[in-house]
Design brief:
By secondary structure, the chain is of the alpha/beta class. It is built from 15 helices and five strands. The protein has a five-stranded mixed beta sheet. Helix 10 (204-210) packs parallel to helix 12 (234-246).
Length: 312
Amino acid sequence: MYGQNISLPSLDNLFSSESDRQDAKLEKVQNLRLSELFSFKDHPFQIRDDEEMQKMVDSIKDHGVLTPAIVRPRPEGGYELVSGHRRHRGCTLAGLDTMPCIVREMDDDTAVILMVDSNCQREHILPSEKAKAYKMMLEALQRKRGRPSLENSGQVGPNYKGVRSNQLLADDVGESVKQIQRYIRLTDLIPDLLDMVDEGQLKLTPAVELSSLAPHEQEEVLEYLQYMECTPSLSQAQKLKTASKNAPLTPESIEKIMSAKTPSVSAREPQIRLSVSKIEQYFPKGYTIEQMEQYIIRLLENYERSRSREGR
């Protein structure tokens, strides 16, 4: 199959020189005070005191920290955690004062790439965490690679073997490019809708469609969802997005789209088709198709009851 032998360069190979990698082998592990270690700026991953954290605390008490954290010096003093936020929390809960760290000088973009790359190996990651982390990492990759020239407009740097930033990210984190794009779109959701995605109340694909709405429209949709205790299907979310392109969404337009019922008829179930033009003369003016259908069913039910009485 075409392209099956293509191998993408690793992030380490792209953004570190041979001398950097040799230096890394010589880096010394230092025991730094927990009070000197500060969280990474805009760290997108939550640190939860859950069952997994308790297992880490127990392991630290029994065996210590087996893998050193990676930190970088801060201009204002102390060190910024790049990799090791959960280990830092585990050491705190275990009652330790210090933890082993590797101090490494690195620029902001390299730090972002390493921070996201190390955390994406975690087993349980919320959609909101992926959304923010993937966006941070993609932007960092693009800055590291530089802006493309007019002849090279696909964000492909001259020294990176023609690999796009989003493909490089996808290969590194094990997601498809389209899936990464979907997650990044979630960063345009208002916080309450994003929380619904994390809690499993709102599915990913409808949420991606809702992310195209203006914030005030999302607020209107959220208010409807909370009041009706419902969530939109993909089809409904797509209709909300389409309607928003034509005119700002209002409570009335949202209700109209969300309350419309999609007919579902079994493929094996025979259907009787009646032309509206043939039967509308028998109904009051302004009757909808649904009202006509309900009226016909009531007539048939009354007819069946009358037949039953006559047969007694």
